[in-house]
Specification:
The chain contains four helices and 39 strands. It has a five-stranded antiparallel sheet, with no helix packed on it. A five-stranded antiparallel sheet has the order 2-10-4-8-7, with helices on one face. β14 and β15 form a beta hairpin. The longest helix is centred in the first third of the chain and has 7 residues.
Length: 614
């Protein structure tokens, strides 16, 4: 046989877990060219209903033979074992210790002996069956002897039993596309509860041809067939001569055509005429109890462990995973990367299968598959959604495949409840802007100056590689139009706000500071030489012109006569423009007195002497 494929199952290995729910319910579903078989045996040496009380014991071991076709590929294998008492969580199969993965229990309240407990355990033994292949399997080391001795009701009421079974799900390319549903739990009928109804959900009947149902049940007696029946959707089923309509649970094994499977039943029934195309559930009813040949009431005790259905199925199964996402700092857009799968399916998933994305019930965006997705294949894509304003930074986005965003699904699937995937998303929120100390510098003219912007960052830890300067928040957010030479920057307006972006992966921080201008005291030279040699030809008062634009300059000769009046547009080149004579003439060599009124409330008029020489 070939090695097993990987099938996704949620199981807990290595420890025994007491089952909280005993009702028969869906355990695993398999979709593909699958079927199943089963082997097992009883540990009762005889039917307990006819054995004498002194023979109240079970065998130490029993055997069964597995014989699968070489073309079959094993998909899954489960071992079940059951008996009277509270259970044995560790047994052996061909000498290999097997530890239970769950224990189911049911109870029978006997009016004379009180409460009697019965158990069932199971374990996934897929790899063991693959490794050991066909051949004889010996089950051993299930010890319930202490319970049989401690509670005499088992023997007195002749409800002592023990047994085991292995279910094997396999793939064969020659099979039709089937859906196999394995239901398990532990439910009981007896003299106290004479009727049991079980509804099998998650069934999808496309074609009822070759439909079948199997049962694993315990403690049924061939000799107790009073009021006993098994019905499917209201129709009593049978499999004569092995299973009669009034004695379904009678110690038989359909797979080996045996009627010596004492106090256990491993049976399969054809239900082709008991289900209809389109059915999504199957109703099962079991009864026991009636008047015996002595005219008194009698009932069989029957314990149902699992049920398995094999139905033709040709359906896709859409699931979705949100694989990853991208968020940007301060951005409400989220790019989602997702994968749509068609794994547990028996038909391709159509193209244009709708996908919807939600946040707190609000539809964020919609997409659809692009191509037909074959059985067992996937398709990956992405979508950008916008998070509404006011949403928390920590949020959960829900992706649902086969959801049109209005009324729900549009495609019938093998499983209609596995279309959802959740993703925890953390938006990158930009911290509040931190205001730094402003930079102030001298006016170099027309309210401009030269700044080293790095001087504003004295309280920040940074490198020049992770810092950048901008004139607007918009440019900062888009990293556009950064100031190219921040160490030698001339302001444009006064005052001017500079925005700083400090990269702090996965986001960034924002700072701001202002550039301001002050009019620094002008520097007045001691003299000048207006001889047109292009050197020191005028009264060049540095830090005055185009800075103190409203200034007034007055120059007097040594006799106290005003000879010149100037302003921002009229510097002194040593020529006379005031007085009665000599207008336009250059003053003679000598010392001249000046009064400089800056017309700035921060400064008093400045006075002094300047020497003119040629």
């Amino acid at each position: 046989m070939k090695s097993a494929k990987h099938i996704l199952c949620i199981l807990i290995f290595g420890i025994t877990i007491p089952a909280q729910a005993q009702d028969i319910s869906l355990f695993q579903q398999f979709n593909g060219r699958y079927d199943y078989t089963a082997i097992g045996n009883t540990l009762n040496p005889d039917e307990n209903n006819i054995a004498e009380p002194e023979f109240c014991n079970i065998l130490e071991s029993s055997e069964a033979t597995l014989s699968l076709d070489s073309n079959y590929q094993i998909i899954k294998a489960y071992l079940y074992w059951a008996g009277s008492g509270s259970g044995d969580p560790e047994v052996s199969l061909n000498g290999t210790p097997i530890v239970s993965q769950a224990t189911y229990s049911v109870f029978y309240n006997d009016f004379l002996y009180g409460q009697l407990e019965y158990f069932s355990n199971y374990a996934d033994i897929t790899q063991l069956i693959i490794d050991q292949d066909n051949g004889v399997y010996e089950f051993s080391n299930m010890d319930i002897s202490s319970d049989l001795l401690t509670y005499p009701g088992f023997c007195e009421r002749k409800t002592n039993f023990g047994g085991w079974c292995i279910y094997i799900i396999y793939e064969d390319s020659s099979l039709p596309l089937n859906q196999i549903n394995l239901y398990q739990g532990l439910e009981i009928i007896n003299a106290n509860v004479q009727e049991l109804e079980i509804t099998l959900d998650n069934v999808n009947v496309i074609d009822n041809e070759n439909a079948k149902i199997g049962f694993l049940a315990w403690e049924g007696d061939n000799n107790l067939n009073y009021g006993e029946s098994l019905s499917i959707n209201g129709n009593i089923i049978s499999n004569p001569p092995l299973n009669l309509p009034d004695n379904a649970f009678n110690g038989t094994n359909t797979f080996t055509n045996s009627n010596t499977f004492y106090n256990a039943d491993l049976d399969v029934y054809d239900i082709e005429n008991n289900i209809n195309v389109g059915d999504s559930s199957v109703s099962i009813k079991l009864t026991t109890g009636g008047i015996n040949e002595n005219g008194t009431f009698s009932a069989d005790l029957i314990i149902i462990n699992n049920i398995i259905t094999v139905l033709n199925s040709q359906l896709p199964d859409a699931t979705i995973n949100i694989d990853d996402y991208i968020v940007n700092c301060g951005d409400s857009n989220v790019e989602l990367f997702y994968t749509v799968n068609n794994f547990n399916s028996t038909a391709p998933l159509p193209a244009n299968t709708p996908i919807a994305f939600y946040l707190d019930g609000l539809l964020l965006g919609q997409s659809q598959t692009i191509n037909v997705i074959p059985i067992g294949e996937s398709e990956s894509s992405s979508i950008s959604v916008t998070i509404p304003e006011g949403s928390d930074s920590s949020l959960i986005i829900i992706a649902i495949v086969d959801d049109d965003g209005i009324t729900g699904g549009t495609i019938t699937e093998t499983n209609e409840v596995n279309n959802v995937n959740l993703a925890d998303i953390e938006l990158l929120v930009i911290p509040d802007i931190v205001t730094l100390q402003f930079l102030i510098d001298c006016n170099e003219g027309f309210e401009t100056s030269t700044y080293n912007l790095f001087e504003a960052l004295t309280d920040i830890s940074y490198t020049e590689d992770n810092i950048s300067f901008f004139l607007s928040l918009e440019d900062l957010e888009t990293v556009s139009n950064a100031i190219l030479i921040p160490s030698n920057y001339n302001n444009i307006t006064n005052p001017e706000t500079i925005y700083v972006r400090l990269e702090s992966p996965p986001c960034y921080e924002i700072f701001q500071f202002d550039l301001t201008i002050e009019n620094c005291p002008p520097y007045i030279p001691d003299g000048f030489s207006p001889n047109d040699d292009t050197h020191n030809d005028w009264f060049n008062i540095q830090g005055l012109y185009n800075i103190f634009t409203e200034h007034e300059l007055q120059v007097y000769n040594r006799y106290g006569d005003i000879i010149f009046e100037g302003n921002n547009d009229k510097p002194w080149y040593g020529k006379i423009n005031r007085g009665l004579n000599n207008h336009g003439n250059t003053v003679p060599v000598g010392t001249y007195y000046y009064i400089l009124n800056l017309n700035d409330p921060n400064y008093r008029p400045m006075v002094g002497w300047v020497y003119v020489n040629y």
